Amino acid sequence: MSELVTGEAVALELRPARLPSRALAVLLDLVAAMAVYIAVTVALVVSTASLDEAAQTALSIATFVLVLVGAPIAVETLSHGRSLGKMACGLRVVRDDGGPIRFRHALVRGLIGVIEILMTFGIVACIASFVSARGRRLGDVFAGTLVVRERIPVARAGFVPPPPPWLAGRFSGLDLSAVPEGLWLAVRQYLTRMQQLDPQVGRSMAERLASDLAERTGAPVPQGVPAAAYLAAVVQERQAREARRAFGDGAASSAPSAAASAEVRAPADVRASAPDEVRAAYGPPVVPPGAMSEVIEATEATAATTATEPAAGGRPAESHEVPAGDRPGTGFVPPA
């Protein structure tokens, strides 16, 4: 990537075209120009057969200049730096500041290109491109232009990994109104790129961002929760709140229930069943002290409430116990 600074002091990251792609584009342009030149020459020979030799020579020279020199200049000027070969290779000629070229830029490139491409069979252009750090030939140097790549392979969009299931909805009571947009942006950028960072550097960045976020919200980071997982859970909570404000409560119905998730603090079986990308992003499971006992107590309380709670309508729930006479035999006889 090459960083170009515009007149408005805006840094542009452009990818200069290298010699192979530029050579292929020039070759395609020359093939097209030669085909047109041959067709025009044949037409002139047929139509000017009655003229004398001097007139035919003058027309031949004019045809050569117009087709092989003037036509490429006109095409680059009208297409803002995209000839037939450049369009096929995904290239474009731009100014040094990243702007579109004009007639004077195309004129200088075309005139010098006759010398370094046509007359020397491209040897001078190849040497200049090898020497230049940005692959520019002499025509680009004198015209103040640069050939860049327009079709860049699309990189994978930034993916914010979801928080672990045991943290979903746990921070529903946080006050996020004091968190500035700059901090949210920094958190999102870290979450999308944390897999590309060195583990130690990424851990220190996550701890610093989590500390800043906890200071803004007024609630400390829960003990035993990794900093990266804490950041992802808070970001998910903010997104859920924005969805509810924009589309109503029904838009966030797919989000995890806060009341159901806040009571559970990372049972081992739930954390082990987390998706692979979640476990890869936030490390191995860490079960806080007393988590399993809380789950067992909550399960027992739920079972007792279900057994004693009357059914809807005020009547106790019907018993589904099978009568003794209908029970299948087990082969066990109690002692006398």
Automatic annotation (TrEMBL):
Keywords: Membrane, Transmembrane, Transmembrane helix. It comes from the Bacteria. Residues 245-271, 294-336 are annotated as: Disordered. It holds the Pfam family RDD. GO terms for cellular component: membrane. It is a multi-pass membrane protein. The chain crosses the membrane at residues 24-46, 58-78, 111-131. InterPro entries: RDD. It is found in: Membrane. Residues 251-267, 298-316 have a biased composition (Low complexity). Residues 17-144 form the RDD domain. Its main location: membrane. This is Integral membrane protein.
